[in-house]
Amino acid sequence: MKWTKPLKVIGVNAITAYVLSHVIDFSQIANYLLFVFEQYVGNYYETLKITGGFGILYLLLWYMNKNKTYIKI
Question: Cα dist. 55→6, 19, 62, 72 in Å?
Fold first, then answer.
């Protein structure tokens, strides 16, 4: 099913997602990329920043899944 694809991308790279989320602050990277929107979204900027951080992590996991790169222990 197509709607399960995002869950599969995260699931097959769960170890990578866990480790990277503790090593790299993706919300800070999103803050650097999305700071221009802070004046427009006001109080929702924190939500935008966290969602952007997850988006960056997801794009990395999607790229790994596309190239069939999996980390196993």
Answer: 11, 16, 10, 23
